UniProtKB/TrEMBL annotation:
Region (Disordered): 1-37
Entry annotated with the keyword Transmembrane: yes
Species whose genome carries this gene: Microbacterium luteolum (Aureobacterium luteolum)
Name listed for the protein in its UniProt record: DUF4870 domain-containing protein
Annotated compartments: Membrane
Transmembrane parts of this sequence: 74-101, 122-145, 157-180
Amino acid sequence: MSGQDPQGPGEFAPPPPPAPPAPPAAPAQMPVPPAPVYGAPAQPAQAYPAPGAPAGYPAPAYPAYPAAVPPRGLLPWVLGFLIVIPFPFAGGLASGIAMAVSGGSSLRAGGTARENARAARNWGLTYLMVSTLLLILHFVLLFVLTSQSPTTGFYPLGIPITVYFALSLAHLVIVIIGTVRASSGKVMRVPFAIPFLRA
């Protein structure tokens, strides 16, 4: 009997019920990071895509900033390079003065920075004092020895200026060593510097 055959007088069979609609597809869900468990070992950080970002693309990366370098007392030693100023005697005086007056923040920082700043100040003051005395002695000898008659030789008039240039060369070497040691976080000590500032 077909579905259109009468069941009784004037009656037809009802049509079959329609198939139920398919459930909608569940939307893709973002992975949820696990809740932290206190006392448990730290889990490695996972990168989750940004909301709305297409799947398969990496999460945006953020730049990693380097850790802050602790103060090392480098500036007073670097200022010692003012000795290379190409003016007669001005570079040496500027170098000694700059080393003597700089490094206040390094002294307040303590530790290696304080020791390097103190050593640089002591050496800067020592170099400034000795080089100034040598220059004064040179000009005093110049006036004393040449007041009666002109001198013909460089020595003995040139002894103070020769010692001055030797001291300036030693100063440049000490500044280079001090800069290298301070930049690597070590303490630079100049044993023959006059200890104007004590620890």
